[in-house]
Design brief:
heterodimer; A: mainly alpha; ABC transporter involved in vitamin B12 uptake, BtuC; two-stranded antiparallel sheet; 2 strands; B: mainly alpha; two-stranded antiparallel ribbon; 69% helix; 4% strand; globular
Chain lengths: 311, 366
């Protein structure tokens, strides 16, 4: 039964969910500090292309993952300087970052387009646990990054809810003026979390080539996953654990398409691809209405530059 | 490290600052691009010369650049009209698709039976309506529920993208050409519904139309009561309430207008260039680039024309680069340069508006 198409699809959904979750967790950190970064797609592409080249040169998966993540962080540093120190519009800067990242990644990646990558992350079965019906292949036969991402989601949830720094972070995102008056270094918090966001987006991109499809193509490597990650943050109403569940749902909806084709059910792929975006709008409209926003909504200061002298 | 940077708003902006800022942004971006080009083994000077010659030296080059600039002007206006009110409709991309869907429907269904002027008008009017319809959820949720328009408009962009792909690749819809079986394509709109080009050049009446719309938007913003209401609601919702301006209706109207302009961008693309619903040829990021065009022009409708022509030239040169003799430079160089120029220009903008001070942080006594 563990080889049935449905179980295999569930297992594949975990893999499909991982890069979405990684990038979205990073974006969640940045947004919790009050900075919206629409450059996720660009950072992921850069992370992917750099990880591919590092992987080819060194043959070491972990070095490739690290260098890809750092490349994402480097790109997010541009966003941080422009929006935090120089107070530029977060929307315009983020979109420009995606344009620049896409162009740079495609230019750098032109010479490796279509080439295979020799190394990739392999699923490691957990001994007999991997043979359990259904949950064996889904939970106990994945690659290390899948587990790392789940752990990371819970760590971030703990960080936000149970640590002093996490509380400070939330206050920076909700009311920077108040945080500032409490002696919390607003700009420093924003810098760190924007950079962490870039690091995770880079890691997500790296995982795409190191764990999912071991080749590079600008068209299909990210295929708009960066935008889905942005949607996921909203869909999960800025909560890390909900984000993990949402990532599985989004990953599932991407796999459903292949599954249904295999079963001979003709549901147009395009309509299934719309689902994450439609669901996000519905969640936003239903839960994001004014009365509920205080409990589940966006950080209050999201998108607004903080200027001490002008408050 | 007790130094920190302080920004101080400039009281007087010297006129030459607004020229110096973009110029230095372009120079800085070209330097960054040169590093990447050199690393990849290309001669930056030769590449830049080819870029410039491809887009700005011959009449064919210039008119090609203008044809790329045409939709950028339109999406720039769409973003600009909303952004200047602090309404962040970032979905011009999706509204462009919706406009193209509605406009190409008119071109196919109505185009045959109408005289040319009416057929073109039908395409354009329908495309405006399509864009508005697509912006309606964004506008209504924002105005009446306070839902964040950034997210809804961004999400709808992808709904629009997949809808467009569905109509051509995923179904045998009205838009799909039944005669072509190997690779699905859109049905051609009737010849009467084409916006004519100038002679053998690639630009034509679409550009004229778009420039006229830019002037109309400029006049609306500057000289009408509607424009005045919009700027009051945008800059101070409290003042608007005090003055009895119906803020919700103004927000709704502004976002619908923005959507309509985005839709018109799609209509103009269909009528003057694509001539069919072409998912690949329309999904070029024109809507997203339009936002940046608008921002660099500081949301001024006429400034948008200038910025769009420059960026249009850059985008157009990409294709020309690929055929450069000797060294095959990938077209993406122009996209990379475009991104770099945008980022530097955003940075430079700050130096125009603010004065930078390095101040020593006073010793804190608690």
């Amino acid at each position: 039964m563990n080889n049935s198409a449905f179980v295999l699809m569930l297992a594949a959904s975990m893999v499909a969910a991982t890069p979405i979750a990684l990038a979205a967790l990073g974006e969640l950190l940045a947004e919790r500090s009050g900075v919206l970064n629409l450059g996720v797609e660009g950072m992921m592409l850069i992370g992917a292309v750099v990880a591919f080249q590092t992987g080819t040169k060194t043959g070491n998966l972990w070095v490739a993952l690290l260098v890809g993540s750092l490349a994402g962080a480097a790109l997010s540093a541009v966003h941080a300087v422009l929006t935090i120190t120089l107070r530029a519009s977060q929307i315009v800067t983020g979109l420009s970052l995606t344009i620049f990242g896409t162009g740079l990644a495609t230019f750098v990646g032109k010479s490796i387009e279509g080439m295979p990558l020799a190394v990739d992350f392999r699923p490691t079965p957990w001994g007999p646990l991997a043979d359990l019906p259904v949950i064996g292949p889904v939970l106990f036969k994945q690659d290390p990054i899948v587990y790392a991402t789940i752990v990371l989601g819970f760590v971030i949830a703990f960080y936000l809810r149970r640590t002093r720094t996490g509380l400070s972070l939330r206050s920076v995102g909700e009311s920077p003026a108040t945080a500032d008056s409490m002696g919390i270094p607003v700009a420093l918090f924003r810098y760190i979390h924007v950079l962490l966001g870039g690091l995770l987006a880079g890691a997500a991109g790296a995982y795409l080539v190191l764990g999912q499809v071991p080749s590079w193509s600008q068209e299909s490597t990210t295929g708009g996953l960066g935008w889905i990650a942005l949607a996921l943050v909203v869909f999960a109403s800025w909560q890390p654990v909900r984000l993990l569940l949402g990532a599985f749902l989004f990953g599932f909806s991407r796999q459903l398409n292949f599954f249904l084709q295999g079963q001979g059910v003709a549901v147009p792929a395009e309509l299934l691809s719309m689902l994450p975006y439609l669901l996000t709008i519905i969640v936003l409209v239903v839960w994001g209405s004014r009365d509920l926003r205080r409990r589940v909504g966006a950080p209050d200061a999201l998108g607004i530059a903080y200027v001490r002298d002008e408050r | 490290m007790n130094l920190r940077i302080r920004l101080e708003r400039r009281m007087h902006q010297r006129w030459w600052y607004s020229l110096l800022a973009p110029t230095s942004a372009i120079v800085a971006a070209l330097c960054v691009g040169a590093v990447f080009l050199a690393v990849k083994g290309f001669d930056p000077v030769a590449v830049y010369r080819a870029l410039f010659e491809a887009s700005f030296t011959s009449l064919y080059g210039i008119t090609d650049s203008l044809s790329v600039a045409t939709p950028l002007i339109m999406t720039g206006l769409a973003a600009g009209i909303a952004f200047r009110m602090n309404l962040f409709n970032i979905g011009a991309e999706g509204q462009l698709y919706a406009g193209a869907i509605a406009g190409s429907w008119a071109g196919i269904a109505l185009g045959k039976n109408l005289p040319p002027v009416l057929a073109v008008t039908a395409v354009l009017v329908l495309s405006v309506l399509g864009g508005m319809l697509f912006a309606l959820p964004v506008a209504a949720f924002k105005a009446y529920l306070g839902t964040n328009e950034i997210i809804t408009s961004l999400m709808l962009t992808f709904v629009g993208l997949y809808l467009m792909r569905f109509l051509i690749y995923g179904s045998t819809s009205f838009w799909r050409d039944p005669a072509v079986t190997n690779f699905p394509q859109g049905k051609k709109i009737a010849n009467a519904a084409w916006l004519p080009l100038f002679g053998s050049y690639r630009t034509g009446w679409g550009l004229v139309l778009v420039v006229l719309v830019a002037f109309a938007v400029w006049a609306l913003v500057k000289y009408t009561k509607v424009g005045y209401d919009m700027s009051v609601v945008g800059s101070s919702p409290a003042a608007a309430r005090y003055a009895g301006i119906p803020s919700k209706r103004v927000v709704l109207g502004a976002l619908l207008l923005s959507g309509g302009l985005g839709g018109l961008a799609g209509g103009v693309e269909v009528a003057s260039r694509a001539h069919a619903l072409d998912p690949n040829g329309l999904a070029l990021g024109l809507g997203f680039s339009g936002i940046v065009v608008a921002a660099l022009a500081r949301y001024h409708p006429l400034g948008i024309i200038v910025v769009a022509v420059f960026l249009g030239g850059l985008r157009n040169a990409g294709a020309a680069l690929q055929s450069m003799p000797g060294q095959r430079v990938p077209a993406e160089v122009s996209l990379m340069l475009q991104g770099a120029i945008l980022l530097f220009a955003i940075g430079a903008e700050i130096f125009v508006r603010y004065r930078l001070h390095l101040v020593r942080r006073p010793a804190v006594t608690k």
